[in-house]
Amino acid sequence: MEENRFQSCWQTVAPPEFPKLSGDCNADAVIVGGGLCGLLCAYELQRRGVRDIVILEAGRVLHGTTARTTAKITSQHGLIYSSLEKGMGTKAAWQYAKANEEAVSRFAQIVQTEKIDCDFVPCDAYVFSCTPEGAQRVREEAETARRLSIDASFTDKCGELPFPVQGAVRFSGQARFHPMKFACRLAEILRERGVKIYENTPAVALDDNMVLTGAGRVYGKNVLICSHYPFTNLRGFYFARIVQNRSYLAALKGAPELSGMYLDCEEAGLSFRSARVDGEPVLLLGWGSHKTGHETDVSHYGKLEEEAQKLYPGCSVESRWSAQDCMTNDHIPIIGRYRQFGDRVYLATGFNKWGMTGSMAAAGILSDLILSGKSEVADVFSPGRSDFRLQAGKFFQEAADTAANFFHGYTEIPKGGVAQLKNDEGGIVEFEGAKIGAYRDTDGGLHGVKTVCTHMRCPLKWNPEEKTWDCPCHGSRFDADGNILENPAFLPLDKRGPD
Ligand SMILES: Cc1cc2nc3c(=O)[nH]c(=O)nc-3n(C[C@H](O)[C@H](O)[C@H](O)COP(=O)(O)OP(=O)(O)OC[C@H]3O[C@@H](n4cnc5c(N)ncnc54)[C@H](O)[C@@H]3O)c2cc1C
Ligand code: FES
């Protein structure tokens, strides 16, 4: 099959390799997940004196969402502050602001202290709107942010953008970087300082403070779940509190270099930032937002490239890719004690596409909770907060959506027999009287699987753009051979069809 069609522009930097776990062990802290969040938690805990730290990674480190992000380092998360202050009060908005402002500063400190060469560039961040109604909302955001001591201001000009705006809120003193240069070096630093990192070691269950893997059991005095979607999610109903949402990115050559970073205030709006890839300037254009396993009939890449040509005629697309992140009902990450497992199990997830600062904030908060039992900014992120009560409508909407996915999936009529699949075509087909999922590759080879998600048995949808099987319930993704691409599932699909 064709490989790497949708690699991000950051993935030319290869992460270091680590061994697989073999046998049981103990640690002061066991961290599940080797993405930015897991690595930063390990870094922070070790810096504050925790000695034995083990990181368990299901696949290879830094092959998850961190490798496919836009990598804006900012406390400006859309128009979060005005809605947060209205919905949860000034104290909650202040805690959110403080955690994320400190996270921006911490990146600068770590880059400097550890001398990490990662194209770190201080810059301003803007959320703009092209409508008068939107301009009113960004003005309100600027006022709220200023009240929360953020260096924010309103402007009606974003002269670097290829279209006029009605208004924008600017946060000064933010930053952008190359996430893989930063995180790969961080992983090496952790190894040099004695943190044990095990790859190809998925955590499959948690028994009190014992993390079970196929290669051994790891007992942790503290267990931190940083696996993007929590690998264990039944307790606490996390499967109903988190959805995975996808967006699309292109790295453009022949577009101008921007000094600022920009984001439309509308949910699926455009995102802009400049970057250097192999020393060459590119402009990263982002667009789109949909639940994983939905909109499978939309040409997202086609639309993104159309938009790129409209905005920057004659530019070329150097690379294009998609990524997904965990979204919470109230748009606030979930960071804190995973109470359903007792006092020493912690969770960091639901970064709502702001997991650079979200991961850094999680590292600070979880270290505070582990080492001193308290954190002055933890309440707003608490897993035990009342998002379920406040967002009951969304909760039941998700439950109804899941039921509909089951119904449509199990009643989907096959598009014909396996023989009818053309080259580079996939979908649900009939094979020996049963329904299977199949993809015929560009050389005519057939890849057949059972299209039942190994997480909670939701029927999978064929994604014709990326040639993957995507779960419309909680966002697991599998390649055409059934190998896992994105969790929460950690078991591959069963093979089906002719050998
Ligand atoms: C399109 C897009 C653009 C974004 N842009 C920005 C941005 O500009 N700024 C910003 O702040 N944020 C941004 N984000 C969000 C940010 O990239 C993510 O929130 C962040 O990278 C998540 O890091 P993570 O470590 O939690 O997850 P990941 O990087 O996905 O790492 C999780 C790791 O856990 C491992 N794992 C999973 N299950 C198990 C298991 N059972 N056992 C062991 N290991 C396991 C996975 O294999 C993976 O390696 C963006 C997100 C998207 C989708
Ligand atoms: S991801 Fe939960 S059923 Fe598929």
Present as ligands are: flavin-adenine dinucleotide, FE2/S2 (inorganic) cluster
List low-pLDDT spans: none
Total helical elements: 10
Global geometry: globular
CATH class categorisation of the largest domain: Alpha Beta
Strand content: 25-35%
Which range best describes the helical content: under 10%, 10-25%, 25-40%, 40-55%, 55-70% or over 70%? 25-40%
Largest sheet: 9 strands, mixed
What do the pLDDT scores average to? 93
Note the gap between the termini. 16 Å
Q: Which oligomerization state do the chains in this entry correspond to?
A: single chain
CATH superfamily of the largest domain, called what? Answer: FAD/NAD(P)-binding domain
Structural class: alpha+beta
In CATH terms, what is the architecture of the largest domain? 3-Layer(bba) Sandwich
* Count of discrete structural domains: 3
Would you count the extended β strands for me?
24
Radius of gyration: 22 Å
CATH topology of the largest domain: FAD/NAD(P)-binding domain
Keywords: 2Fe-2S, Disulfide bond, Iron, Iron-sulfur, Metal-binding
Organism: Caproicibacter fermentans
GO molecular function: 2 iron, 2 sulfur cluster binding; metal ion binding; monooxygenase activity; oxidoreductase activity, acting on paired donors, with incorporation or reduction of molecular oxygen
Protein name: Cytochrome b6-f complex iron-sulfur subunit
